[in-house]
Give the backbone structure.
Amino acid sequence: MKYSASIFVLVILVFSFTDCQYQPTWDSLDKRPLPDWYDEAKVGIFMHWGVYSVPSFGSEWFWYKWKGTKDSTYIEFMEKNYPPGFSYADFAPMFKAEFYDPTKWAALFQQSGAKYVVLTSKHHEGFTNWPSKTSWNWNAMDTGPHRDLVGDLAAAIRNSTDIHFDWISAFVLSCLDSPIQS
């Protein structure tokens, strides 16, 4: 039994130092595999959109800066514009996406010359822009827009353009081959 446990630990250690490990240096990062289409694309669109868009102040780090670091500019903004006791969750029903037309967005992206689009589908505060079963009541289907924002955009892009729409990277794919599972 000790022999099996030792082999298991050794295997874990060996695989923890495989090519899925990168250092915070340009040299290390430049060695990561990129899909050919990404390397050749040159122009792409990254969009951050979610509950944090409602106050139209700061960035996607709104909640963290307001409640996490207690940044005085965020606290003052909230005191000036929202009633006492207003919570970050109170923004979610206001995130309606009423002017969201994924077909028009796809056409605009195509006209811009973009070769790929990345929509931040879940950000730091955990709100998902799709109907997630694991983020009960904190997703775009259960509150706010009441629709699958990611699915609608993915369908529009895939059905009417030649733009690449995906969330996964070659790095993630290379790690999927690893025997170590999380």
The chain is about 40% helix and 5% strand. The first strand starts at residue 44 and ends at 47.
